[in-house]
Amino acid sequence: MSTSKKALLIDLTLCVGCNACQLACKEVNHMPEPEKEEKALSVSAYTALDEYDGVFVRRMCQHCEDPTCASVCPVGAFTKMAEGPVVYDVEKCIGCRYCMQACPFQVPRYEWSSTYPRVQKCIFCHERLAQGLPTACSEACPTGATKFGDREELLKEAAERLAGEPDKYVQKIYGQQEVGGTSVFYISSVPFEQLGFKTTLQNTPLPQLTWNALSKIPGVVSVGGAMLFGIWWITNRREEVREVEREMRNQEHKNNGKNEVNS
Amino acid sequence: MKKFLTTFGFWKVTAVAIITAGLYSTYVRFFHGLGASTNLTDQFPWGIWIGFDVLCGVGLAAGGFTLAAIVYIFNIKRFEPIIRPTILTAFLGYVLVIVGLMFDLGRPLQIWHAIIMWNPRSVMFEVAWCVMLYTTVLALEFSPVILERFHMTKTIKMVKRISIPLIILGVLLSTLHQSSLGSLYLIVPDKMYPLWYSAYMPVFFYTSAIAAGCAMIIFESFISSRAFKRGLELNLLTEISRVCVVMLGVYSIMKIVDLNDRHMFSLLLVPRFETYMFWAEVAVGVIIPFILFSQKKVRKSPNGLFIGASMVVVGFVMNRMNIAITGMEGWSGATYVPSFTEFMITMMIVTIGFVAFYFIAKYFPVFTHEEHHDGNEPAHAATAWKHDVESVSRRTAELQN
């Protein structure tokens, strides 16, 4: 078994909207037999097809290289595996939903109707990957619109496809740079912003934003602590000196035979 | 009806009504889940329980560390008469934040996981530890009041011995915690409306919390003076309002510089919902109270102080709600209005806070200095054993030296 990074390449020009990916996904994840196609991500649909004027867009977790969900989770319920999948450990989850709030792709879904809810999202068939198998969705795809492979090779292939038919494709691999890169790449003949993709995302990982603040904690604690102690020492000392002076003054008063005492 | 109300007291009836509705809502929340009890969705996973109960609960408790620093670190002892009620407000604030979290967390019984399952990259992890540690610190800071009631002089002595490290720890934890609530939102640069999103949110949260904490000290003093028919430490509150106005000034300057740096001034005139909410928040919470508190006449008048402080508190709440809700709605495409159950649970938590404060202040030596102040009669409940308490505290003070 190789531990090279895996990825998916989704070529929107090849997708015919047959929904085989969703069906295969449900089967492999032991979800109930669906009555009809689910048109949006949900706790029972890790992947779903959006349609924009005949163009089908497959939605799913992007499996970021530096996942925002994994960085924000207070109990570390999300893990980025060496092969690429971002997986969720329900045994750790406390249900704060910071992952949902933070995910730049708005992927995680919540079991709102449960009294003991879980977060749900695509897990990149990590158990199949461990057996050397591709993801269920890519295996089920009849047109090759979803292709599974090594991350670097898929990126190379995507670039080749763009270069091979420059008139057909928008010259962008969505997911290559977004928030520092992901494990799911899209290529398309229609500009991404018209297909509901977030195209304004920064190219560096989001966790850096919070780390900028978190990394200042040791400084705040040590400098702040020393400063507060220093201020207390000075003000306290001043108080003590004042006390002694007062006593000395009182002593003088007594020595002078006066009954009055400064209070 | 009118007779009924006067017999039992308007506030008591209101409190009972709110708590009853809150208990029903609690049942819905825990037996039917978050979906049945809230208007939260996958697109909008955080509502008023985070926006109000947590963000505002922690922020409004900021008076605790501010005043503790003034009295114990800067040794400005004349503020001592108001330190106990302020610490109590902060402590109750934090306890209620934890209560609010228990409602909001999907798996509240797993809340302790943060103690053993660490993720130091997570702001929420920092928040969790700050809540745990600072609540403990506040409990210790307040403990002498409880111990005095039971004349446990030895234990008081032990607590007083560690009081300075404890106060320093409390100030540090508060600084981290107040700012970390702002850091929580650093991770959503695309989702939050740019009038609010800024890399300096941690600093804004910190400064605005100090201003609001000062306002809460004034607000709480007024409410208590009426509830317990006791005198008002007007001179001290005047000075607190000066701290408040300075913090409001610092906050405004930073906010203006930040908007300018990010070239966002033009957004202030765009006719859309976010703009109106931003102006409302700034006008109520910053501009008007700044003008009011800048005038000596207002700072020295009880009514002026009360109105100014109330505005700062309301404006602060508007700011946190705008960040948690208004600022996040546009991007997500969802509109969020809290459900009846969400609202009633929040109301219940606030009510419990008021009731708890009332009873603790009634049966424990929270207000101990009223005889030094103008003519109003002292609290009846406190008088019975006040003498004991004062002799005990005097004795402890002697022992400490």
Describe the overall structure:
The complex is a heterodimer of chains A (263) and B (401). Chain A is α+β, with helices and mostly antiparallel strands. Chain A contains eight helices and nine strands. In chain A, the strands form four sheets. Chain A has a three-stranded mixed β-sheet with strand order 8-1-9. A two-stranded antiparallel ribbon of chain A has the order 2-3. Chain A is elongated and about 110 Å long. Chain A starts with 5 loop residues before the first strand and ends in an 8-residue tail after the last helix. Chain B is globular, with a radius of gyration of 22 Å. In chain B, helix 3 packs antiparallel against helix 14 (302-332). At the A-B interface, helix 2, helix 3, strand 6, helix 7 and helix 8 of A face helix 2, helix 4, helix 7 and helix 9 of B.
Structural class of chain A: alpha+beta
Percent of residues in helices of chain B: over 70%
Task: Summarize the amount of helix of chain A as a percent range.
Answer: 25-40%
E-strand count of chain A:
9
* N-end to C-end Cα span of chain A: 85 Å
Count of separate DSSP helical elements of chain A: 8
Roughly how many Å is the radius of gyration of chain B?
A: 22 Å
Apparent shape of chain A: elongated
Instruction: Give me the strand/helix succession of chain B.
Output: HHHHHHHHHHHHHHHH
What letter string, H or E per element, gives the SSE order of chain A? EHEEHEEHEEHHEHEHH
Most extensive chain interface and residues per partner:
A-B, 55 and 57 residues
Q: Please, what is the average pLDDT of chain B?
A: 88
Classify the beta-strand content of chain A into a percent band. Answer: 5-15%
Mind summarizing the main beta sheet of chain A? 3 strands, mixed
Terminal Cα span of chain B: 58 Å
Low-confidence stretches of chain B: 371-389
